[in-house]
Amino acid sequence: MSELIEALRRGEGLAAWRQIADALEGEIAAGQLAQGAQLPTEAALAVRFAVNRHTVRRALAALAERGLVRASQGRGTFVEVPPLAYPIGRRTRFSEIVTGAGREPWGDLISQSEGAASPEVAAMLAVPEGAPLLELVTVHRADGVPLSTARTWLPLPRFAGFAGAYETSGSITRALAACGVPDYTRLSTRIRARMAEPAEAVRLDLTPGRAVIVVSSVNVDGEGLPVQANRAVFAADRVELVVGS
């Protein structure tokens, strides 16, 4: 990509920001800007195209709306990577799926709290309404790219140490093992699509209004007892859910 000032076509009815977006999209399509690569800074692009940073920002926002780039707060803007095939079955394991795709998995604990089971969550976990639960909000990444954010509920007091184990390991599977559940299977899965809520968009580095896939599930231990109810929100452009028969 040239560092020289690149002249835009003026007076032809095509806005400067759109010309910049089209030029960058062409470079992404041609592989000049590789998958996962960081784009030049807004300041550098403003110099390249001889425009102000507001014009560059609008061009980058248009690319983000098309699912071509991802703006990460405090880090910059990156070319999106191809969707990751994500199998949904009896043994769905985020870390195994991401590692199998040659990428590095990790989970961040955003918040933890204790509360009473709502009617919906109580039914999922087969506990009385109002029973004590641990609730976590997490973000799950592959090579640093957020794939999903989730809200997870676990019965108390059985999983009182779960949050600390998860924060240390970054893995649901390892945290469950630390709480005495060496293996678990998927009891049920429900999938739907909707637009990202504002907080979800921030955690997933999405522009507001982008589509997400919501996967609600219940996992059980070896004795068939529910151990985890989970509602994961996936960035729709970053995963391809594969449902096993």
TrEMBL record:
<dbReference type="Pfam" id="PF07702">
    <property type="entry name" value="UTRA"/>
</dbReference>
<dbReference type="InterPro" id="IPR036390">
    <property type="entry name" value="WH_DNA-bd_sf"/>
</dbReference>
<keyword id="KW-0805">Transcription regulation</keyword>
<dbReference type="InterPro" id="IPR028978">
    <property type="entry name" value="Chorismate_lyase_/UTRA_dom_sf"/>
</dbReference>
<dbReference type="InterPro" id="IPR000524">
    <property type="entry name" value="Tscrpt_reg_HTH_GntR"/>
</dbReference>
<dbReference type="InterPro" id="IPR011663">
    <property type="entry name" value="UTRA"/>
</dbReference>
<dbReference type="InterPro" id="IPR050679">
    <property type="entry name" value="Bact_HTH_transcr_reg"/>
</dbReference>
<keyword id="KW-0804">Transcription</keyword>
<dbReference type="Pfam" id="PF00392">
    <property type="entry name" value="GntR"/>
</dbReference>
<keyword id="KW-0238">DNA-binding</keyword>
<protein>
    <submittedName>
        <fullName>GntR family phosphonate transport system transcriptional regulator</fullName>
    </submittedName>
</protein>
<dbReference type="InterPro" id="IPR012702">
    <property type="entry name" value="CP_lyase_PhnF"/>
</dbReference>
<dbReference type="InterPro" id="IPR036388">
    <property type="entry name" value="WH-like_DNA-bd_sf"/>
</dbReference>
<feature type="domain" description="HTH gntR-type">
    <location>
        <begin position="14"/>
        <end position="82"/>
    </location>
</feature>
